[in-house]
Input
Amino acid sequence: MKSTILFDLHTHSISSGHGSNDTITDMVKVASSIGLKALGISEHGPATPCSATVSYFRNLSLACRSRFDVRLLYGVELNILDKYGNVDLSPDLLSELDYAIISFHLPTCKPMSLEDNTLGYINAMSHKNVRFIGHMDDGRYPIDYEHVLEVAKCKYIFPEINNASLAPDAYRTNGYENSLKILTICKKLELPVLLSSDSHGKSQIGNVQYILPLLKTTDFPEHLILNYREDFLNQL
Ligand SMILES: [Zn+2]
Ligand SMILES: [Zn+2]
Output
């Protein structure tokens, strides 16, 4: 299994309002130095306290698309707000972004029942430009993995395997067991996954070190890892 990836699409700059003071410039320099072909900036949606505003997302259409030989993509990590799958950016703004990740976060949606968390993910998949499911490994939000992943496959949406959920200091729970579960189901369904650092700032960009052992344990097929396929970037 290759230890390097071609792109990292789940990262946050200073504009997410917590975790780091690093700018996109700081981050893209690191991405370039480690040989990434593309870097995706996915700030938290506006419902996250102190995160990027609607105006920030609107102006991304004017942002540079390439720096230091790295392609820049601009997305969002949307907050799923309820079981109906409501999220915190409007359809017109979502349609202008390169992609959206849908995630649950404690400040914007308290954990619900297994049935309602599952519904939240499934309903949120219907929004424009949703391409990835964020850290569905989080044990604080129990879900029906088989059901969510079967629907994702039908909608051409991919789950991420989140390196930060697997780090020794992870604040999400049961990341290891749940990531194994996700990989096992995805292998069975032939559903590709996205490997993500979820780096806040530049320090973890491209880091998938805690994911690699799980790929080995599950004997996960390389062709189902989006980050090894440069051609996938053409679809964003
Ligand atoms: Zn998140
Ligand atoms: Zn994130």
Remarks:
- The chain is about 30% helix and 20% strand.
- The longest strand covers residues 70-79.
